[in-house]
Amino acid sequence: MALQPRARWLSGFGQEVALPVAVMATLVVIWEISVHAFAIPVYLLPAPSRIWVDSAAMAGTIWGHTVATLNTVLIGFAVSIFISLPLAVALTSSRLVANAIYPLLVLTQAIPKVALAPILVVLLGSNELPRIVVTFLVAFFPLVIAIATGLLAVPGELIELGRSYKASKLQELWRIRIPYAIPFIFSGLKVAIALSVVGAVVGEFVNADKGLGYLIVSSTAFFQVPVAFGALILLSLLGVVLFQAVVVAERVLFPWSAKQSQGAIG
Amino acid sequence: MIQITNASKTYAARDGSTVHALSGIDLEIADAEFVSLVGPSGCGKSTLLRLVAGLAPASGGLIDVDGETVDQPRRDIGIVFQSPTLLPWETVLDNVLFPLKIMHSMSPDAPDRARALLRLVGLDGFEEKHPSELSGGMQQRAAICRALIHDPDILLMDEPFGALDALTREEMSLELLRIWTDQPKTILFVTHSIPEAVLLSDRVVVMSPRPGRIAEIINVPLPRPRTFDMEGLPEFQERSQHIRSLIFGDRGGRHGAAT
Ligand SMILES: Nc1ncnc2c1ncn2[C@@H]1O[C@H](COP(=O)(O)OP(=O)(O)OP(=O)(O)O)[C@@H](O)[C@H]1O
Ligand SMILES: [Mg+2]
């Protein structure tokens, strides 16, 4: 077949990097041309070139905002991990605990975080803390569910293997359940890191004096639409980079897990 | 010594009915004796092994090991499960060392002993591989090493050679006999192969299904060490024939499906 050499080129590096970059570049070019061709006003949709120029003009400030957001995202993400793991272990350890905690967890998910954020500011003060709490609340639930699913997915025969050598509950958890759950944990982490970015921005919308979310709110208020677009693009990039960092971490730390989840997303 | 007195096991099935997996099992196994369990699929061989291992409680009767009632797993027992059940994230070597890690009895020479065992079953060079890189038969051989690593007094083996090809199977049988002669152990060995049972065992326990019970216990008076040449001996033939007719009744005879 005539398509085969091209198909081979498209595999590996080509398909993973070159193809999406090419598609993106094409879209950007179409965007630029359309804005000029249809004379779209800059406060509606700025051209990519304009976004670049305006954002580059205040690169230093934007960098500061990016670091602030990254900070909130990472702390919120870390808190999510440190709370989700013991929570999932508790949830899966006994039916009683599960029945006691699970409805509470679902409740935290039912609360609209955007509505909760201003109340948290009143409660916790106008500082970093409410933003971290919102980030955590947005991100942790899928992680808890993923870890709990993994801990429960362990085949009975592996548990029996542990039992036959008199493994304690702790050994069973540490040597069998958690390692088995690693691929599940990482699929949860991938969702959680993406949601952490969302959570941080929600927090910044409501109360912040820095961060990319704050930059979007403030620059649109002053009709600096290209800068708002620049911040939006940076946020997306931040999300992609952080997501990829989780993917790479899995590949480096747990190669067998990454191999297992190949074919699935990430 | 393993002493099984009038043991029975009933499982509660999902639909609320009960399955009588074992009923009225009486069996005494002396120290360093090699006993095989044979019988049709579903006659309760694995269940009996699980009872002796302390992995499941008997519904009735008593199971004693060295005079102690078995109500939980014991450290002096090694088990080879019907499937390899290796930990996919550990290397073959670490899988073999798993019992020692769980029992906090890792010694400096343990990795060397594990390597020696792996060499014995023909897995040298695979120590650092992961189970997914091994064939089913190789995985089962690694599982056998794992059961031997803490040098247990009792070895419970559930069709350990089931996933092996005929040649490797014969090789492994002889290897097992060699290990058993070097370090005498009580072995309870489940197999579907009648010649294998006769060749390895001091006694062969033939079981019948629904409910699982002992149909007959056959002594194998062949001299040790055993070799595959003995399959031609009349004692061997006679006992194999007898076991076959017990399992298949009159209909099976010499055309029995079991190999
Ligand atoms: N956990 C369980 N729950 C319910 N029934 C079970 C369970 N385990 C085994 N049984 C039933 O007990 C009977 C004996 O099963 P067992 O696994 O001991 O047979 P087996 O002789 O080892 O068979 P095979 O040669 O196929 O391995 C079967 O009828 C099976 O359906
Ligand atoms: Mg079985």
Overall description:
Chain A has 266 residues and is an all-alpha fold. Chain A has a single domain, classed as MetI-like (MetI-like fold), CATH 1.10.3720.10. Helices cover 84% and strands 0% of the residues of chain A. In chain A, helix 7 (128-152) packs antiparallel against helix 9 (169-206) and helix 10 packs antiparallel against helix 11. Chain A is globular, with a radius of gyration of 23 Å. The model of chain B is unreliable at 252-259 (pLDDT under 50). By secondary structure, chain B is of the alpha/beta class. Chain B folds into 2 domains: 1-76 and 155-164 and 178-259, P-loop containing nucleotide triphosphate hydrolases (Rossmann fold, 3-Layer(aba) Sandwich), CATH 3.40.50; 85-151, no CATH class. Chain B has a 6-stranded mixed β-sheet, with helices on both faces. In chain B, strands 2-1-4-5 form a 4-stranded antiparallel β-sheet, covered by helices on one side. Classes of the chains: A mainly alpha (266), B alpha/beta (259). The complex binds adenosine-5'-triphosphate and magnesium ion. Adenosine-5'-triphosphate binds next to strand 2 and helix 1 of chain B.
CATH class of the largest domain in chain B: Alpha Beta
Tell me the domain tally of chain A.
1
The end-to-end distance of chain B, rounded to whole angstroms, is 30 Å
The H/E string of chain B reads EEEHEEEHHHEHEHEEH
SS-derived structural category of chain B: alpha/beta
Task: Please report the number of helical segments of chain A.
Answer: 12
Radius of gyration of chain A: 23 Å
SSE order of chain A: HHHHHHHHHHHH
The spatial strand order of the largest sheet of chain B comes to 6-7-8-3-9-10
Short characterization:
Chain A has 266 residues and is an all-alpha fold.
List the helices and strands and how they pair.
The complex is a heterodimer of chains A (266) and B (259).
Chain A: H1 4-10, H2 13-37, H3 48-57, H4 59-93, H5 95-110, H6 113-124, H7 128-152, H8 156-164, H9 169-206, H10 212-221, H11 225-253, H12 255-261
Chain B: E1 2-12, E2 18-29, E3 34-38, H1 45-53, E4 60-65, E5 68-69, E6 77-80, H2 92-102, H3 110-120, H4 136-148, E7 154-158, H5 166-182, E8 186-190, H6 194-200, E9 203-208, E10 213-219, H7 234-252
Parallel strand pairs in B: 3-8, 3-9, 6-7, 7-8
Antiparallel strand pairs in B: 1-2, 1-4, 4-5, 9-10
Helix pairs in contact in B: 2-3, 2-4, 6-7
Residues 45-46, 82, 158 of chain B line the site of magnesium ion.
